[in-house]
């Protein structure tokens, strides 16, 4: 038996060497079957991959289980790769294909993805959540400002140091609920509390570096089966909730009026589209989950990091507050104030850089064999845009571990984005919610700093926890009222 095992290992190693010889990018060796997975730090896989990029260069390859993976750690390489149609696939992970079934927007590919990306972009323009629809932002701005005002008032009622997670989650979640579902819930509503819990825990349960993604058979092992049951149970229960919300909104869809939320827009599309096979209710449920979940989680996480860095960097916080006070003169911020508050805007960008919410990016997959930077990339390869490596590269950013918003200001002290800054990724599958996220982050940041001085309550933990996103650990900070 031992000889058979040794022979199998040698055979796999031989095949691995042969594969390497066919003009593939350089990269580290891994173990048979497991590949490089055992050597990834489960608490910081982005840091392991970044260390490898410093050794092997801006493009390298490795096996994660049976999935051959290309890692890109250069902004130009990522932009070039993700502009190709052949790289618009989704990585062959269990989360993408086994649990989500290729539905929605995040996990879809091919015609399903193209049709629904176009649909999503259309309704974001309709609701005023893109640059091309600035004139139509009044109603959306009113929703955001209402939730900001409510959140600031609730925080102001707190007398002791608090973790603002619950307040921020309710406020940003309410914005997304209004946009997606056409309704909001009260803070203590059981349905809303459950929906928030399911969303929060789901992002922690499985990440792109989790072994379950590469070895689906692990779902039969108790440790992993518990995770799968939680994800599937959460999916089925949220879909049931979505069915109820859809029925409630169905009667509000008027043929001669513009839809007021995503549910109404989808129902309208079902009745008018010629691509009916792509507008099924399974796709409907997954699309609602993607827009709500992605919009809430990434924006909430960025704002939490923003407040922690304000607490950890009181001098910078004071400079931003001085700008806010000088421009706003004690009035609420408006959408027109974004270019007038360049340091405030720059502080948001610096937060997105120094704590990339998705540090390994959203992996793509090759739909066919491609040539990239002179290397042959086989069909079905997972391609990782390593945001952490790009955003923390000392050859691009001076002292990248330091929080310095002024790196996003040009000589005229206006906000400027270098091409190496890609928090919303880039290319054909770039996040379409960028403008909405910036609007929310700007209104919350400016309003909170206008009302409070944010102070540390002990040491500020800036390490975080990795799941699908890099999330701050729960910790208390003080909000000292300025009024």
From TrEMBL:
Q: What is its main location?
A: endoplasmic reticulum
Q: What are the annotated GO cellular component locations?
A: endoplasmic reticulum membrane
Q: Does the keyword Signal apply?
A: yes
UniProt name for this protein: Cytochrome P450
Matches recorded under SUPFAM superfamilies = Cytochrome P450 (SSF48264)
Membrane-protein topology: Peripheral membrane protein
Signal peptide start-end: 1-21
The GO molecular function terms of this record are: heme binding; iron ion binding; oxidoreductase activity, acting on paired donors, with incorporation or reduction of molecular oxygen, reduced flavin or flavoprotein as one donor, and incorporation of one atom of oxygen; steroid hydroxylase activity
Record keyword Magnesium present: no
Q: What functional role does this protein have?
A: May be involved in the metabolism of insect hormones and in the breakdown of synthetic insecticides.
Source species, domain of life: Eukaryota
Q: Name one GO biological process term.
A: xenobiotic metabolic process
